[in-house]
UniProtKB/TrEMBL annotation:
InterPro entries: Homeodomain-like_sf, HTH-type_TetR-like_transc_reg, HTH_TetR, Tet_transcr_reg_TetR-rel_C_sf, TetR_C. It comes from the Bacteria. Pfam families: TetR_C_11 (PF16859), TetR_N (PF00440). The lineage of its organism: Bacteria, Bacillati, Actinomycetota, Actinomycetes, Pseudonocardiales. Keywords: DNA-binding, Transcription, Transcription regulation. Residues 38-57 bind DNA. This is TetR/AcrR family transcriptional regulator. Gene3D superfamilies: Homeodomain-like, Tetracycline Repressor, domain 2. Residues 15-75 form the HTH tetR-type domain. The keyword DNA repair does not apply.
């Protein structure tokens, strides 16, 4: 008897379609407001039939959550300097730099505006990175705040400033955020 094997081909047509659709979304958002985004427009831009998008994602909200999850997964390396303060300073600075990218902001705004899962897609990996930094400090015998509190103090202001205020976060400000967290 043979074991059941997966028929998913990560490098196959499915991956090419996903990449083309994601690229089409990013390009569309660079040229148009998020409110104008529709699955048929993205399908045309990606060179696929609209039913492909409806079958795979079902809605603009689900597509935007997938694009955001893909974009915000693994793009920032979690620093390991041996110091919680320095790890958080470097990480917060990297997040601020990422949030200053106009394409990133367009994806975030569209994902957040598409439904409740959109915001989670933009922050899930950041929370995982933050948890890794804090857990590593605890494993070294140090004390670290809980992830939820650290996210409120660090990510809340960073995301607010980027998304709503349109102000870049300079390095001294991100350092102040970390210092406030670790008081």
């Amino acid at each position: 008897m043979s074991a059941t094997t997966s028929t998913t081909r990560p490098g196959g047509r499915s991956a090419r379609v996903r990449a083309a659709v994601h690229r089409a979304v990013v390009e569309f958002l660079a040229e148009h407001p998020a409110e104008a985004l529709t699955l048929p427009l993205i399908a045309t831009r990606a060179g696929v039939h609209p039913t492909t998008l409806y079958r795979r994602w079902g809605s603009v909200a689900e597509l935007m959550a997938d694009v955001a999850s893909s974009r915000f997964s693994g793009d920032i390396v979690v620093p390991d300097t041996g110091s919680l303060r320095e790890d958080l300073r470097r990480w917060a600075s990297d997040v601020a730099t990422d949030l200053a990218d106009p394409d990133v902001l367009a994806i975030m705004r569209a994902a957040i505006g598409s439904g409740p899962d959109g915001g989670c897609a933009c922050t899930a990996d950041r929370h995982a990175q933050l948890t890794a930094i804090l857990d590593r400090e605890r494993s070294r015998g140090g004390t670290a705040p809980e992830t939820a509190h650290a996210a409120d103090v660090l990510l809340g202001p960073l995301y607010y400033r980027a998304i709503f205020a349109g102000q870049p976060a300079d390095p001294s400000w991100t350092t102040e955020l970390v210092d406030t967290l670790l008081k």
